[in-house]
């Protein structure tokens, strides 16, 4: 079903919220967003309430503060709130304090996103991506109880085959193969080219983890989700079709850095990799102006 056809049968608020789910993967496609939502419902229903609460909080904050409707409908004020809602539901026990905390985090992420968007559109400011989620997530996780549980997973042919799907789900903290399959199917519907790059990135992440004998990360998809996001972000820059490969490699190389300095990884390697690459492309593009009248244009992926 085309996204435009889906939009005509969906209320504005629902379209905006579903686009928020799809924007986690740098897409604007409500059907893809619905599949992301269903992936949570079917494989981790205890996280769904937090995801919806965070996304709605971001959307309502944007509406109350009269942020641009086009940006609200694109899901730009919801996706960080959704990720924060899932993160807080995962690391904090449900209590009377958790819903207000999720609402506050989702609303604050929308305000940060708005300020970032304003600067992106008047200057060469780097895109926010999931930076509001990462920044607020680092602060909030300081108050979480560390989890000492580790899932045992057997190294066999079946687990190796489904491991690349796990990477898609791990972007949203979902470790079930069904979640990865639903999200991968949604991405295929939304953008086949992006799906191909993301699949390559997930396989590369698994291979990188296996090469370093990190079988736990390889089989659960933890080694590939940042590479997936980097590939998705950079595949939108059509003038440089080789950039996703650089993004994949950079995200994989940067991931151990955050563990080494004691910070939760979250999606920080993806953000840092894309910022470094986009900065390098911008610098090279400026240098090329002295040799050619053609400038290097940079397409903003899905308004982000």
Automatic annotation (TrEMBL):
Keywords: Cell membrane, Membrane, Transmembrane, Transmembrane helix. Signal peptide: none annotated. The keyword Cell membrane applies. Gene3D superfamilies: Ammonium transporter AmtB like domains. Pfam families: UT. GO terms for cellular component: plasma membrane. It comes from the Bacteria. It is found in: Cell membrane. The chain crosses the membrane at residues 31-62, 98-117, 124-148, 168-189, 194-211, 217-235, 242-263, 269-289. GO terms for molecular function: urea transmembrane transporter activity. It is a multi-pass membrane protein. InterPro entries: Ammonium/urea_transptr, Urea_transporter. Belongs to the urea transporter family. This is Urea transporter.
